[in-house]
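Quality-control log, excerpt.
Job 1 of 2 completed; input and output follow.
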Amino acid sequence: MTGRTRWLAVILVAAGSLAAMGGWNYSFGQAGGPGNWEFFASPTRNPVEPRWGTYQDIRRQDREAAAAKANYCPTSGCVIRLDKLAVNPPRVQRGRLATISLSYTILTADDAGIPVTITRELFHQGKSLGRTFSKNMRTANGSFDQEVALTLPENSPPGKYTLKTRISTGFGQDERSLDFMVD
């Protein structure tokens, strides 16, 4: 192994160890999270762009419990399902924190962790105000709950907003939309 290759190996091992311990601290629209998730926000340079905050991802059911609930048979292929989408409080106040909650289920025939991307995009009067996505390169089988903090600026127009959320993998995708009010 040459000196350059050895240093590259040391850096990769150190970076992997830091990521495994949850030591990544992302800024500028990115945030590290539990379970190897990476979180990114796409700025739109819109003066009423939402400010995406912290997030968490919690495993609600292991593979066996999720498979039993879904009456899943491995010969039927993969299950990629967005089970629930909510915004709390249901009437969001400009300048105040709100939480986007979603529940999803991943089941594969061979019980292997798969890459998953969850995308959220916020619209007002048909115009995109901002998008965020989170990625996990090894999502285990099971059912999960994920929450993302959101704050709309004080100068956001009141009215009906639409949140479009998509979960996607190499095996398929599922999508839901939700309308909510901003005061």
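Job 2 of 2 completed; input and output follow.
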Amino acid sequence: MISKRLCIALLCVLAVVFIGYAQVSSKDKNAVSEKPATKQETTIPAAEGKDKKQEAAKPAADAKTPKQETAKPSSDGKTPRQDTAKPPTDAKPSKPALPYVIAADDFSNLQLPDTAHPVFDARMLSERISLGLPVSLPTLAPYRGPKTAYLTFDDGPDDEVTVTVLDILAENNVKATFYVTGINAATYPDTVRRMVAEGHAVGNHSYDHDYDRLYMSPDAFLYEMVQTDEILHDILGFRPLILRAPGGTFSHFTSEYEACLEENGYVEHDWNVSIADTAPGNPPAQDFIDNVIAQTADGKESAIILMHSSSGHQETAKALPEIIRVLRENGYRFGVVTPMTPQPW
């Protein structure tokens, strides 16, 4: 019995040992089989980590792109800085400043600070009367400033002397005043347009310089002024307010003429310096230069200089560069005649 029981006990022990060994062996197998999986899992994350590093590097590369994009022109070809400086697309471009002044309907803008800009009126005399607008000019304070020389040219334009005079004025950056006749303006309209485009003043000098018809009466004189105004208005789109009486007012005007011009808004200017280029004998250019020197030697503050730019006055054009030089050397600046230009006497 004892031995039988002993055998049974030994068998139980062996069974327990065998079961335990089997369990240990199974665990070892699982551990062995799991080890490669663990290696694979650590390898994959390492690969993913590499990818992540690369992906992390991409934003760094991308981070440069916005920087470059800020410096690059936008799709419309303009950088942001240019866009801020650019006016709105619906904004109208500013117009360049005009080289002249157009009178207001009430003539309120004729008191100018300098002598640099000529003055014109967009309305004809008859239009002002029909609309009930002012016709006569307001009282203007005469311009008082630095010594000013007003170069004035009568009787043009033509297609030779006037053109040469304009070229010389442009070369010397000088503005002048041209008192034109209606008949010559109608013949050479492009020259009149050039005068205004280059900043010169244009004044009325009657229709055709015919003294007998012009000085029959104040009404006859006014008729020729209006006739020439119409020609100039057709050419330019406006008319002058300044005029010069052919031959001057001294021997032709009476108080009735002066009253007629004042009532109808015209300002007449004679001269206080003459180069005498209509003197008989065809005097040379040097005579004209000497006349200017002699007649401005007193240092007059306002020198209104009479010259002519019609056909046959080539010597006037020849003298002009030296006349300009002499006047500048003597401290004169140059201006254009306007309604506020001081009278010469």
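Post-run check on job 2. The longest strand covers residues 148-154.
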